[in-house]
């Protein structure tokens, strides 16, 4: 591993330059991990988009379907950027692609992360409203509200990512081109701006996370207060099954936050202070461990594009039923084709047998 940031080197003008804090394990681990996430994420999210497109006739699904569609688009944007990140890590953190692509791929990573966080939060609020105020939720203009909220989330996220898009994102570290890394030798004013930006993002994340936790606790409390009724005469199904599905959904949403986003935002604050040399009194081992932990949390955020389709399955019964019916039809189609082929071969064999007897 590279020497931590507490050490210095001398550059041409004899001024001390801080060395880049690195974690060499990522150059092996990240290409393998992203190499798996890329095809799986592409297949899962393209299929989710296909299912959501075929569910557009269901009026009851209008609002949450809009949120899910937008979340899927955000995940696909992240997946589209993965080949460039794979190449970056294969080249030991040296950006070989055209410089503008660094800004674009870095922006897509940011957009996916915070679009996902906001859309998952909105889905939680939507489910809370559907459970606690079902009549009001059903009578309101769901499609219009879903479209306005989705547009607002995209505007906020894209506006926040403008700083990434307007800069090349490339920082020179000797002869290496770092993509959105290596700010340790910038001017103090820029370092303070970078640090302040990170801490504002961290604070906003925990505000949204708290809102998600509160919404899901209120959903769970409302569901658990509902009495367990008898099975419906027409279907024989217990309404308790719906309650269990709703509880699984809120556990899935919180699970995505805890696995993908919470570790990153917990580590991000101390890591920023470390990597920008704002805590020189920390030991070298502390700097290195923080950087190693930060790299792992970046990897965990990449799981988000694989876990989001699970949220869709638990958020709505119709999404899950569509998938079940689709796979049942595919299986029946294969069995039908196999039976047709078997029948054709049997008829051909019988025909040949009759022909030989006649001869």
UniProtKB/TrEMBL annotation:
The chain crosses the membrane at residues 32-52, 64-86, 106-125, 146-165, 199-224, 245-266, 296-319. It is found in: Cell membrane. One of its GO terms (molecular function) is G protein-coupled purinergic nucleotide receptor activity. Keywords: Cell membrane, Chemotaxis, Disulfide bond, G-protein coupled receptor, Glycoprotein, Membrane, Receptor, Transducer, Transmembrane, Transmembrane helix. One of its GO terms (biological process) is chemotaxis. The keyword Flavoprotein does not apply. It is a multi-pass membrane protein. It comes from the Eukaryota. One of its GO terms (cellular component) is plasma membrane. Residues 44-312 form the G-protein coupled receptors family 1 profile domain. Interacts with ARRB1. Belongs to the G-protein coupled receptor 1 family. This is Platelet-activating factor receptor. It comes from Carassius auratus.
